[in-house]
Amino acid sequence: MHLILFIIFAGFCLAGAINLLLQTHPINSALSLIVVMSSLAVLYLLLGAEFLAIAQIIVYAGAVMVLFTFVVMLLNVGEEEKTHGSKAAKIIGFPAIVAAFSVLTTVILAIQNKLGGVKLSDGVTPMTELSTVLFRDMLLPFELTSVLILVAILGAVALARKEGHR
Amino acid sequence: MDNIILSLILVTPLIGALLIALLPDRRTLSAGVALVFALLTFAFTLHLPAHFDNAKLGFQFVQDIPWIASPNIHYHVGVDGLSLWLIVLTGLLAPIGVLASWNTIKDRPKVFYSLFLVQQTAMLGVFVSLDLMLYYGFWELSLLPMAILIAMYGRTLSENGGPNASLRFFLYTFIPSAPLLVAILWLYAKTHSFDFVALQDAISNGTFPAGALLWASLAFLIAFAVKVPVLGLHGWLPDVFQEAPIAGAMVVAGKLGLYSLIRFHVGLFPQQAVKAAPWMIALGAIGVIYGALQALVQKDFWKLLAYGTISSLSFCTLGIYGATLSGLDGAVYQTLNEGIIGAALFVLLGVLYDRASTSQISQYGGFATRTPMLATIFVIASLAMIGLPMLNGFIGEFLVLSSTFTGTSQAWAITATVGVILSAAYMLTLVQRVFYGQQSNLAIAHAPRDLDLREKFILYPLVTLMLIMGVFPNLFLTGIESGLRQTSGGLAYRAVSLCARPGATCGVQATFPVRGGQQ
Amino acid sequence: MNPQNMPDLIRILPEVVLTITGVLIMLFDAALPATNNRRSLGWLGAVGVTAALWSSLIQLNLPPGTAFYRTVQTDPFSVFFHVLICGIVLASILLSLDALPANQHHRGEYFALMVLGAVGMCLMTSAVELLVVFIALEISSISTYILAGFRKHTGTGPEAAIKYFLLGSFATGFLLYGVALTFGATGTTQINDIAAHIPAASSQLVLAAFALLMVGVLFKVSAAPFHVWTPDVYQGAPSPVVALMSTAPKAAAFALLIRLLYSSFPVLQPVWQPMLWIVAVLSMTVGNLAALRQKNVKRMLAYSSIAHAGYLLAAFAGLGINAIASASFYVAAYAAMNVGIFAVLSIAAGPDEKLSVIEDFRGFLFRAPLLGTLLIFFLASLIGIPFTAGFFGKFYSFATAIHGGAVWLGIIGLLNSGVAAAYYLGFAVKVAQPPAAGSAKLPAPELGVAVGLSLALATTATLVLGIAPTRFLSAAQSGATSFLPPVISDSVKPSTDVPDLSKVRWVR
Amino acid sequence: MSIWLFLLFSILKVAVVTAIFLGGVAYTVLLERKVVGRIQNRWGPSRVGPFGLWQPMVDGLKLFLKEDFIPAGVYRPLYLTAPLIALGCSLLSIAVVPFGSQDITVHGVKVFELADLNIGLLVLLGVTSMSIYGIALAGWSSNNKYSLLGSLRSSAQMISYELALGLSLVGVVLRTGSFSLADIVKAQSAHGALSWNILGGGQIIAFLIYITAAYAETNRAPFDLPEAETELVAGYHTEYSSMKFAMFFMAEYGNMITVSCVATLLFFGGWNSPFGHLFPEPQNIVIQALLALFWFIIKVFFFLFLYIWVRGTLPRFRYDQLMGFGWRYLLPIAMLNIVGTSLVLSALMANS
Amino acid sequence: MIPASWYLILSAVLFSLGVIGFLIKRSLITVFMSIELMLNAVNLSFVTFAHQWHSVKGQIFVFFVMMVAAAEAAVGLAIIIAIFRARATLNVDQVDLMKL
Mind telling me which residue stretches traverse the membrane in this protein (chain C) (predicted)? Predict the structure, then answer.
């Protein structure tokens, strides 16, 4: 059961991610990304992170990506133009990515036995434990997030607002 | 008084610079203040020979204050016979420089005079520092004001002449100073001291591996050789001579580099200096000829002076690496001479340039009839440069040549002597073409004035000095020699070099203290 | 709450003060009429930042320790960087007061962003929990992204912002992946605890995590080969903002780098020392060579800042706490002179940044003697002329490196600074060169009180750090002592040998 | 219990609930037409069947049989997906709503709830946030400026009000200490109406915020700007016809029902009777279940009625008023409500 | 049961795809999406490790990453809007007033 679910949703993830790269229209890319995010939410569920799964849906799929599609719609962004990209980025970039990826995979495979496995019966992280850590141990970062969001709001207003009227 | 006099000498020009910067930007005001402070500094420097004890060992007027604990940097200044007269010379050239610039600097005089005084501090600092870091600080500090001055007050009318000369000057000197700093830091890493005396001790005690020490000494050598400049590293000099304002040009070459060579190359690394000596002697001797030959064919008198300077500075190199006491004496003496004669010639050529607005020798001719005083002094200075007996140039050149001939290498001595003859050729040609012969259109058209009061005020002391130094060399040489014997490591170097020669006695070491130190 | 019975809030007092200041600015911004020029907000910000600076000095009286469940740690090191960052922000705010164009939109937000960004930067230096580090980093980055794009009416402003933003977020991705792998390898994200867990962890995973972390951090300090964003961003961003973002976030990132290297991954020293060796050489060489070709002043300074990152990284070739001290000192020195030079540039070029190319500055010394002199002074400091901050910073950094045995690094570095002298001096010479004969006479730029203060601050700092650096040095050194073993871990004794890593020796 | 039995029951439940839900949707439409008719002093549909009761069937048939017209120039893939997303989300959200007591089980399977999640409330929010895509994509893919404007308005409006909506729920969650809807209802069961969140829980402000935000979320009057006929033709579904239009229609009414259900669960004690234990509880489990269902449906009906009532009486907001109201008043009040609630709760906790 | 490494490899693959997207996509907004993909990939790693260590901290981290991503999205999109206003294009290759 777990295997099937994992394969299905991992498949969705990969398909979505690849589709994100292949699609030329931003809105399609955005939708692919939503698929990736939603599938990730399911994977979180499989890993026992129930709260995160739903937070993923609410925050990422429901808020962040809405913002993306909103902007795509607002600016009426058309198809991507096929222009030649930076050659250097490709020449250096791709081998670097392939190398980095293979290194990572080797590392992960090498420590595979240490890592252990994931079972459906592993249980779900209780919300109480989550909130204890969040509101006690991680109180400072939590409060700090408010500053972060304040900064983001300020900035978004300052940048996106048309000049001429305050 | 004795223990703060050096600080006083250093601080006075700096205060002057600050004061000028704060005062309004008016020509006479800035120049006046600068003159006052330059004279004041000069007066303070005169304190040094007056109270200098030739018999005493080691550095005098020492002031040693810990500056930074880690890294261990001290504000450590002191004077010995080697630096004594150089300091006085620097002090003397400052008011002369101010006077020489009095009329020529019209734009932003404030910037000019403050930078000039800062430069003055930096040069004085180089001569008095006994802490390598402090020394390096002043060494580098001396670059920038000069570079800016050249850029701001480039004399030719060409668009980028000043800036290019300035860049060239700066980079030529700055880039070699990078290895120099590395070498200093490397020394520090081993000893945890920047103190000159302590390092001298450490090096002679064999604290350092010889191979690496050779590289370190090389870094020192190159950094200083560029500043002299030694042949091959002289690329910046002609441009600078052509472009720099007179007050700057007269101090830019020679003494800083030569002093540093003696004190910090020969003084710190006697054994390595011996290894370098054959090369340096060769460069020196060839430099004498090369400079002279180049000077012969120059059409522009600034360039002629530049190559002439290279030629006569090469004598100093020769003297230093000839590794005899009299040779070193001669080198130091020649350094002083160069300062005085060079300054005089610069002022003189400046006057010419002021009158005729060109530096092309071919345009001149027959000036002597219109400007007899100028011609006279010019001839005296030229003769001093050539090395006529009774004038100061003779003493230096003679000491160097004779000691090279007897102590080092007859072949090189002869080569250099040829250079002396050549120097007579180019200087006299210059005199002949500028002042004598048929009156040129220029001389007629411009109807040049003779020397005015200010110019006389500059030149008379210099000429007097040439005569005094030519007649009573011992007045100066005693101090210089005592310095060389006692403190600068010159003798250690000589001892080493003597020992290195087959069949030589090494007993000198027993007779004199090999190295100086605070007793 | 914590063993010393100190109220935890005192440990983040500067951040609290800054946050309150930022919020106050916004509230007043809303309350002020639209026609108000909002200079008062800038002054308010300046006062707030000064208060924060002062309050971080108070922390010196506390014994070093952690707060908020071991997420922040105040020690002399963090105080050093707090003071530095607050100083930079103060100077930038004062500078902005006079250098912003008269028609600048969203002035209130501008000042609030500067102050709130400082919260992130400050916290980055005292955070010992990677989560706090991450959020603080984001606060500082996001506020600088926005500030970079503040000249949005120009084509280059938003372009700078988007490039900065995309590449910055890209780097954040790497940093975060590194954090994830660190967490995976060690099971903790507490910076001080990581070291203790490394011996038990899989060394490959630790290495991979470390590499990814370094990519992220080196990106933030704009070290080669992660420097590509710097020139464009500096060119497009408003000069007062560049003064801030070329120094303060970098200082914070360096503080983070130091914490990571010396608190979390001291075991990996055999790996990171040669790695940083290479990065340092690469940064200075690439930076200087590229800067030589630049015609635009801000681009030139951007490349030079890459080179300076290289000089700074050279310090890490040194041994022990000396490396930390000299790196900290270099950050301070670089901050002083770079803020200064950008202050001069923004006043000189005016709010519309009319003077952008080096050629435009020809004869500037004749036009504005004081500003010109200052410009040359700061350039001299960047070159490393003695008795300026730049000299002493460079000297100390290379001294440490050479002391640590990296003589070649010292030679390469100092030769590089020789190359660098070429373009700095080229600029200085252009400034000093008499103006072209036929050129139109431009009016001398005006010098306001605020910008005067800011310039005075930068000049004094540059001079003091060059002439009497003792106090700052000892502050940096006492900061560095925070990394002596007892503080590194208080739970498990770190063991220093990881067998397969210590054999790795690449370049020395 | 075997997994197959569980699956069978689940499928059965899904089928039943979907059927009832869709039927509810159909009759809510009828209800609206009737009630609005009365408000406007007319009869409403009354010809088809007794009291017009067959009207929804006929409407459905009509929509089903109409030509399914796809305009040229639309972006087909999204144009086709959008209504599915909208309806899908609408149907999905009812899955976590419990209609009756959890204690009533058949073979261990809870009868009155499709999915028992302990983060049910968050799932509701998540689904709501996803439902924006239906509208947004519909408007954009239609390649029609009215549609686009409608969908832009709608996305902005939904994002804005979702915040207030979410925050208004926090008070309730704080009081209960759980995200599970069943737990929330249980916490209100002690003393009848007195312990309902709206009264005893002191969440009346939260309720008002919730109901306001929910109206905006469902694009209902007075916040029905995305489909304001006088300004935007028909907003995001201008270009839709036949079944695709019907899907949007069904989604909207489905959302209304869900919102009403949630309001009932969160603030009005769910299936609990308002009289609490005043009357003895019937022993028969079937009666118990039916009674619970009765109360639940009554309350939901009340909220649906309220929806229609509001629509019939209140004028539409202007767009800037709408946004201003959401951000300047609703959001701060919701925050204050949270602060107040937590202060009171902590005070209470300190006392006990 | 499936090995935890599968999740990690999936995460690595997604991360690499994100990096590739960053390099090849030519519209600013899709480049930004690629970055979001990278962050999501990292989140998956975090959750996996949190599961493996039985530590809530990893999950908390993800939670914060989401918050940050939301803030970043707001700012990033604001910048994108600003650049679209100034330049009327979102093509990476046309946003090149300042050449490298």
Answer: 12-32, 41-59, 79-97, 109-126, 132-150, 162-185, 205-229, 241-262, 274-292, 301-321, 327-349, 370-393, 405-426, 447-468
Residue B249 has a pLDDT of 84
Averaged over B323-351, what is the pLDDT? Answer: 87
Chain D residues lying within 8 Å of A58, measured CB to CB: 122, 125-126, 129
Which residues constitute the domain of residue C152?
8-485
Residue that is written with structure tokens 């998956």 in the block: E44
- Across the interface, whether the CB atoms of C422 and B171 are under 8 A apart is answered yes
CB contacts under 8 A, B 17-56 vs C, are 21, 25
Cβ-based contacts of E74 with chain A (< 8 Å) = 67, 152-153, 155-156
Reduce the DSSP state of residue D96 to 3 states and report it. helix
**What mean pLDDT is reported for chain B?**
84
Q: What is the DSSP letter of D122?
A: H
**DSSP state for residue D282 in the 8-state scheme:** P
Residue C499 lies in a domain: no
**Is A154–C146 a contact, with Cβ atoms under 8 angstroms apart?**
yes
Residue D327 is given by DSSP the state I
Chain C residue with CA closest to A111: the answer is C202
Is B414 a member of any domain?
yes
CB contact under 8 A, A94 and E23: yes
Do residues B7 and B122 make contact, with C-beta atoms less than 8 angstroms apart?
A: no
Helix, strand or coil, per DSSP, at residue D63: helix
More confidently predicted of C29 and B326: C29
ipTM of the complex: 0.86
Domain membership of residue B517 (yes or no) is no
Query: Is C248 a domain residue?
Result: yes
- Structural domains of chain C, count: 1
Chain C CB contacts of E52 under 8 Å are: 184
The predicted model gives B265-273 an average pLDDT of 84
Q: Is the peptide bond before D50 cis (omega within 30 degrees of 0)?
A: no
Domain membership flag for residue C496: no
Exposure string over D92-106, b if 16+ CB within 10 A, otherwise e: bbbbbbbbbbbebee
CA distance B340 to B88: 11
CA distances from D125 to A55, A128, B349, D251 (A): 10, 20, 91, 16
What local confidence, expressed as pLDDT, does residue D229 receive? Answer: 67
The token duo for B498 is: 């003597």
Residue with tokens 């909220």: D303
In a domain, C335, yes or no: yes
Task: Give the H or E element holding residue B61.
Answer: strand B60-68
pLDDT digits (tens, 9 = 90+) for C222-256: 898 888 889 988 988 888 999 999 999 999 999 99
Q: Which amino acid is at B423?
A: S
Does residue B516 sit within a domain? no
Region A30-52 average pLDDT: 90
CATH topology of domain E4-94: Helix Hairpins (1.10.287)
Contact call for B and E: 3+ CB–CB distances under 8 Å: no
From CA D311, how far away is CA D226, in angstroms rounded? 15
Contact by Cβ (8 Å): C204, A110: yes
Q: Are B364 and B114 in contact (CB under 8 A)?
A: no
The share of chain C scoring above pLDDT 70, in percent, equals 94
The position carrying tokens 């923004």 is C346
Convert the pLDDT of each residue in C51-78 to its tens digit: 999 999 888 888 888 888 888 988 889 9
Q: List, for chain D, all residue ranges whose pLDDT scores fall below the cut of 70.
A: 1, 102-104, 107-108, 226-231
> Which residue's entry shows tokens 């990996």?
C268
Q: Assess whether pLDDT exceeds 50 at residue B160.
A: yes
| Domain span at B342 | 5-511
Distance of CA B184 to the CA centre of its chain: 23
SS3 B157: coil
With pLDDT > 90 as the criterion, what percentage of chain B qualifies? Answer: 23
Chains that touch C (3 or more CB pairs under 8 A): A, B, E
pLDDT of residue E98: 62
Is the pLDDT score of C87 beyond 80? yes
Measured CA to CA, the distance from residue C49 to residue C21 in angstroms comes to 8
